[in-house]
Design a protein that fits this description.
19% helix, elongated, 37% strand, CvfB_fam, alpha+beta, 18 strands, OB fold (Dihydrolipoamide Acetyltransferase, E2P), five-stranded mixed barrel, 5 helices, 293 residues, S1 motif domain-containing protein, CvfB_S1_st, WH-like_DNA-bd_sf, single chain
Length: 293
């Protein structure tokens, strides 16, 4: 059987070249560049290598062992994205491997970016080419563990491994599977993106529902700060108040009207703003203007 990319094999050094070594098995030779060795190699020495195709498509060898193989799954880091083609993934060797666009969501905005991590394996095509393949749902189910009831409302972090129109799936650091409904996030996360949230429900099968939205008492500080920053960026006044249309508030601030009213109420209670005639004003800014006059 001929040698194939993706294999880890032990070959014999048959000869040395100016830039490396030729390794042989049953009269089939493979090139091992000096940059891919762990030191000098002797004639007839046995060498264990990983086989891959170099940039020119030639079957080559490296003594660096990949952390992703055709035999199993693991996390690997994305190193580059090519629009309309896919993303390249570092498996631990000098050659990065392509994750094709056909295995990614149609919307490129949620493709992995540099430094994102994907849970994946190596697959050899019919033509012997190596590609990255994302773990399927059955694989994720087998890899995951059940969440205990004690994890309810606990903070978790993890990697997004699947996106749908109605939500996203996360594998947490604890190896829980979680579903993030579109209503429980402000923006749609990318495949491979690390996110943090909290468990809001634990299902009978041990999977979870996760929210990326802050708790009310946490979010209020953040949202109030963002609203106040917006007011100040407009010279201390904005044409929104607690009776503004809910859709207008959603478009401008990305929050519900109830959340907006809580934040405005907090700012008013702290003496930072006041409302008048459908507008919200910064007390600090207008007190400063009055003193200057």
């Amino acid at each position: 059987m001929s040698l194939q990319a993706g294999e880890i094999v032990t070959l014999v050094c048959s000869r040395e070249t100016d830039i490396g070594y030729m390794l042989v098995q049953d009269q089939e030779e493979v090139f091992l560049h000096r940059n891919e060795t762990a030191g000098e190699i002797e004639l007839d020495q046995e060498v264990t290598v990983f086989l891959y195709h170099d940039s020119k498509g030639r079957l080559s060898a490296t003594m660096s062992m990949p952390h992703i193989t055709t035999e199993g799954y693991g996390f690997a880091k994305v190193v580059d994205k090519l629009d309309g083609i896919g993303v390249f993934v570092n498996i631990g060797i000098s050659k990065d491997i392509l994750l094709e666009k056909g295995d990614l969501p149609p919307l490129e905005e949620v493709w992995p970016q540099e430094d994102d991590e994907v849970f994946c394996t190596l697959k050899r095509t019919n033509k012997g080419r190596l590609l990255i393949k994302l773990a399927t749902e059955p694989v994720m189910q087998e890899y995951s563990v059940r969440a205990e009831e004690s994890m309810l409302n606990k903070n978790v972090s993890g990697i997004i491994y699947r996106t749908l129109r109605v939500g996203s799936y996360i594998l947490t650091d604890e190896r829980f599977i979680g579903f993030i409904h579109e209503s429980q996030r402000k923006t749609e996360p990318r495949i491979g993106q690390r996110v943090s949230g909290r468990i809001i429900d634990i299902k009978e099968d041990g999977s979870t529902n996760v929210s990326l939205l802050p708790r009310v008492h946490e979010g209020m500080d953040q949202e109030a700060a963002e609203i106040y920053e917006y007011i100040m960026s407009r010279g201390g006044a904005m044409p929104y108040w607690d009776k503004s249309d809910a859709e207008d508030i959603k478009v401008r601030f990305g929050v519900s009207k109830a959340s907006f009213k809580r934040s405005i109420g907090r700012l008013m209670k702290e003496g930072k703003v006041y409302q008048e005639g459908g507008w919200t004003y910064s007390k600090e800014m207008f007190e400063k203007k009055e003193s200057e006059e």
